[in-house]
Design goal:
Number of strands: 11
Bound molecules: NADPH dihydro-nicotinamide-adenine-dinucleotide phosphate
Number of helices: 10
Strand order of the largest sheet: 1-11-8-7-5-6
Order of helices and strands: EHEHEHEHHHEHEHEEEEHEH
Structural class: alpha/beta
Length: 291
């Protein structure tokens, strides 16, 4: 069986067009133009590229966006003061602090300092708590993107057995909460696997929907996937590739070539979950503005 490719880039474009229409309606109804401000500390190229994707995406959807750049040497107090200034600025509807932060900055304290209604990453403990309580408000972008990919390709998780590999606060845990909530488009039976899981392959083979977010290049191969499974690969790993001019390329956590032979549908890397994460940050910005 050759899997259907879940085209995250095309679905993200569809989502972004919907958001742009909602932004127009929001402004026509007399509301101020939503505005996202990203805080970028340091000059890590990957972080720069992620922030650019999100701010450009907001601009394309008709929202304002700005980036506060701080040096890699910025003190914790300086980052905190920036967040507090943005919290108090009524023209700012959404704040995004690009993670990771340098070691001298207490990352968790910075996330906790963001006004929860402006927290477009959905990582403030208040927002994570609401998600766990079954009353989601702002949900982290990657889990939301995974759910939308499933729903928009006719692979609703309702009633299905979902296995998620990886229990990070950014991806695995909020996704487990989201998909196990008693709600339309969720209502799945979820297993959360991690490095403490015994016989991981036995667990992943039970999945009807398998989501892998482990940060381990190609760790899931065909032997770990039951025929007909829908496979969502969240992983983004840079690996050496001497055949490329850049000397490297991006691969997922799933061995795409072998798993595509057994899965019923699969996301590519790049072009799968990544573009959906960006689209969901943009959606969260509109939501933070009350749209
Ligand atoms: P973390 O490193 O924070 O978490 C990885 C999780 O995977 C941990 O829970 C870890 O278990 C588990 N894990 C690692 N190795 C194994 C293994 N061999 N068997 C079972 N479980 C394992 O990563 P993130 O969640 O932040 O990111 C995961 C991947 O997703 C990365 O490649 C990242 O780049 C990518 N990513 C992609 C996004 C997108 O938009 N597409 C957005 C965010 C992340 P334990 O807890 O036991 O250590």
């Amino acid at each position: 069986m050759a899997a259907r490719i879940i085209d995250g880039a095309a679905i993200a474009a569809e989502v972004r067009a919907e958001i742009a229409a909602r932004v127009r309606a929001h402004i026509e109804a007399g509301h101020p133009r939503p505005k996202l401000v990203a805080v970028l500390v340091g000059d890590d190229p990957a972080s720069q590229s992620y922030v650019r994707g999100k701010t450009t995406g907001c601009a394309e959807a008709g929202m304002d966006s700005d980036t506060v750049l701080l040096p890699a040497s910025a003190a914790h107090a300086e980052v905190l003061a920036t967040v507090e200034r943005l919290n108090a600025d009524a023209s700012v509807s959404g704040i995004l602090v690009q993670l990771p932060l340098p070691p001298q900055v207490d990352e968790q304290a910075i996330v906790r300092a963001i006004e929860p209604r402006k927290d477009v990453d959905g990582l403030h403990p208040y927002n994570l708590g609401l998600l766990l309580a079954g009353q989601p408000y702002t949900v982290p972008a990657t889990p939301l993107g995974v759910q939308q990919l499933l729903l928009r390709t006719g692979n609703s998780p309702e009633g299905k057995r979902v296995v998620i590999v990886g229990r990070s606060l950014l991806v695995g845990r909020p996704l487990a909460a989201l998909l196990s909530n008693k709600a339309e488009g969720a209502n799945a039976t979820v297993t959360l696997a991690h490095t403490g899981t015994r016989d991981l392959a036995k667990v992943t083979r039970e999945a009807e929907i398998l989501v892998v977010a482990a940060g381990r290049p190609r760790m899931v191969d065909a032997s770990m996937v039951r025929p007909g499974t829908v496979v969502i690969d969240v992983g983004i790993n840079r690996v050496a590739d001497p055949s490329r001019k850049s000397g490297s390329r991006l691969v997922g956590d799933v061995d795409y070539a072998s798993v595509a032979e057994v899965a019923s549908a699969i996301t590519p890397v790049p072009g799968g979950v990544g573009p959906m994460t960006v689209a969901m940050v943009i959606a969260n910005t509109l939501r933070a503005a009350g749209g």
